[in-house]
Design goal:
251 residues, 8-stranded parallel β-barrel
Length: 251
């Protein structure tokens, strides 16, 4: 059966020292607790290696927030999937809406990034989601289907290694969470689309996370939906105190 996952996305927050402190706080908060989901923190590149070290011996998995579309070589400023994997990190967020918006990331680029991540044994957390206008014009399903097309270039086996995060852009960092019914509608739509492209088993085994102003107060209702398998958490992942209640929403 598919995994339940609560993953943090620190974005461009935390210095190296703050990142290590946050990871240690989380490790301490989780120590001795019975946890009913996988816990992941995706950190700025600068912190990935140190955070991977800091959480050793805990259940916390570590990831990066992006990776290069290239293997290696003369790509100044880029960080490859193999470099990320060499830190002990196991995950990488790909196609976050902020990367799509500010760095023009499109399907062609994301297909290359997916291939790099998978070739290096990283689990992609692949983000899809519509902007406000697309929600209002009721075109969001075709937008999401268009974003899913990057994943649909993968074999069923490789697709099965990916996690999907549905993040309505209008809900990210705005405090405007999608209602659990709005989120569930899209999650069910994504799962039906996967079943159509591959088969029902693949669809049933895919973890689909919700992201966008998810916090301790709304996580229980969101996670109670049949097709919501966890969360990708921005703001509320920046303190152990606010991240823990989301993890604990999986009773
Ligand atoms: P938020 O961000 O929880 O701060 O809305 C979620 C995300 O962008 O992954």
């Amino acid at each position: 059966m598919r995994k339940k996952i609560v993953a943090g996305n620190w974005k461009m927050n935390t210095t190296l020292q703050e990142g290590i402190a946050l990871a240690s706080d989380l490790k301490n908060a989780l120590a001795g607790k019975k946890v009913n989901c996988d816990v992941v923190v995706c950190t700025p590149f600068i912190s990935v290696a140190a955070v991977a070290e800091a959480v050793k011996g805990s259940i916390i998995g570590v990831g990066a927030e992006d990776c290069s579309a290239q293997d290696k070589g003369a790509f100044t400023g880029e960080v490859s999937a193999s470099m990320i994997a060499s830190t002990g990190a196991k995950y990488v967020i790909l196609g976050h809406s902020e990367r799509r918006q500010y760095h023009g990331e499109n399907n062609a680029l994301l297909i290359q990034k997916l291939q790099q991540a998978l070739a290096n044994g990283l689990t992609p957390i692949f983000c899809v989601g519509e902007i406000k206008e697309e929600r209002e014009s009721n075109t969001f399903k075709s937008v999401i289907e268009g974003q899913m097309a990057a994943l649909y270039t993968l074999s069923a086996e490789d697709f099965g290694k990916c996690v999907i995060a549905y993040e309505p852009v209008w809900a990210i960092g705005t405090g405007l969470t999608a209602t659990s019914a709005q989120a569930e509608e899209v999650h069910a739509f994504i799962r039906a689309s996967i079943a159509e492209k591959y088969n029902k088993t693949v669809a049933d085994n895919t973890s689909i996370l919700y992201g966008g102003s998810c916090k301790g107060s709304n996580a229980p209702e969101l996670f109670a939906q049949p097709d919501i398998d966890g969360g990708l958490i921005g703001g509320a992942a920046l303190k152990a105190d606010t991240f823990m209640p989301i993890i604990e929403a999986w009773k």
